[in-house]
Amino acid sequence: MEIKLATTAGFCFGVKRAVNLALKAAEDYADRRIYTLGPIIHNPQVVENLKQKGIQPLDSPRNIESGIIIIRSHGVTRQELTLLQNNPAITVIDATCPFVKRAQEIVARMKEEKYQIIIVGEEHHPEVTGLISYGDPADTLAISGPEEIPADMVKPGKSSRKIVLLAQTTQSYENFSRVVERLLPRKGETRCFNTICNATSDRQQESLAIAAESDCMIIIGGYSSANTTRLHQLCQSIQPRSYHVEIPDHLREEWFTGVQTVGVTAGASTPKWLIDEVITTIGKLSE
Ligand code: SF4
């Protein structure tokens, strides 16, 4: 059986940067307590490894009195960041991905310019919660797709106020474009910032191409990772034999029955060592 591994599988730029900053903090501040606000990335195996190095995830900034805190790659809310930065007993290491930072800055700027802000993404995802916090709560809305656009916003002929659209960095272009298309015919100004990260779209395109040429597709990543889940959904849309696994133990021998070519891809928060272990196990299961 041939195994085709996507070149884009695994850590993206932002995740690599966040994990490296965490590892450096463990070396530089060996005598101090080190925390992350929420898991630093959505991969339980990486979070467990960091715990072994003394880096503990915290649920709330109120649970820390002193020490080092690392802000995860998809960011935190403006209020949480301010609370931490205003505490002199705390050293903040901001590992928010620069692409997420850019989206936060756009929301803050558009708020100042009095736009109604629409973020296309998962309302309860921490990145989106963070983005919303940079806007005015009464004027900032998260929608998952065109069907959630408020009806009065697209009423024909209705002149309405200026709105701005941006996307959670892991959104698909297709979904974001459908929202843009639905809003374009409205009256009033509609502004759009493409805040989708290239790492996501490159990975999606390559994974789809591999899924189209394979008899079975394995997608590796945390079950709570939004970009891995989306990768699985996309691959499944063209290759029904697409399976999402977190660790090698989740692989099933029967998935590889009659398979000549298996494609492998992984989410942005999946470490290389885990990809290697899954590939080794696939090789053994197909013997
Ligand atoms: S997927 Fe893109 S935006 Fe998200 S952490 Fe990675 S590089 Fe940054």
Summarize the structure in words.
The protein has 287 residues and is of the alpha/beta class. It has 3 domains: 2-10 and 198-285, 4-hydroxy-3-methylbut-2-enyl diphosphate reductase, catalytic domain (Cobalt-precorrin-4 Transmethylase, domain 1, 3-Layer(aba) Sandwich); 13-96, Rossmann fold (3-Layer(aba) Sandwich), CATH 3.40.50; 99-192, 4-hydroxy-3-methylbut-2-enyl diphosphate reductase, catalytic domain (Cobalt-precorrin-4 Transmethylase, domain 1), CATH 3.40.1010. Helices cover 38% and strands 19% of the residues. The protein has helices at 13-28, 44-52, 78-85, 98-112, 126-133, 173-183, 198-213, 226-238, 272-285, and strands at residues 2-5, 34-37, 55-58, 67-71, 90-94, 116-120, 140-143, 163-167, 190-192, 216-220, 242-245, 261-266. α2 links the parallel β2 (34-37) and β3 (55-58). The model has no long low-confidence stretch (mean pLDDT 93). Iron/sulfur cluster is lined by residues 12-15, 73, 97, 99-100, 169-170, 197, 199-200, 268. Iron/sulfur cluster binds next to α1, α4 and α7.
Count of separate structural domains? 3
- Name the overall outline: flat
Q: Mind telling me which CATH architecture of the largest domain this is?
A: 3-Layer(aba) Sandwich
Task: Flag low-confidence runs.
Answer: none
Strand content: 15-25%
- Approximate helicity band: 25-40%
Major sheet size, sense and barrel closure:
4 strands, parallel
Give the overall pLDDT as a whole number.
93
Helix/strand order, N-terminal first:
EHEHEEHEHEHEEHEHEHEEH
CATH fold naming of the largest domain? Cobalt-precorrin-4 Transmethylase, domain 1
CATH C-level class of the largest domain is: Alpha Beta
Radius of gyration from CA coordinates:
21 Å
Bound molecules: iron/sulfur cluster
Number of DSSP helices?
9
Beta strands, count? 12
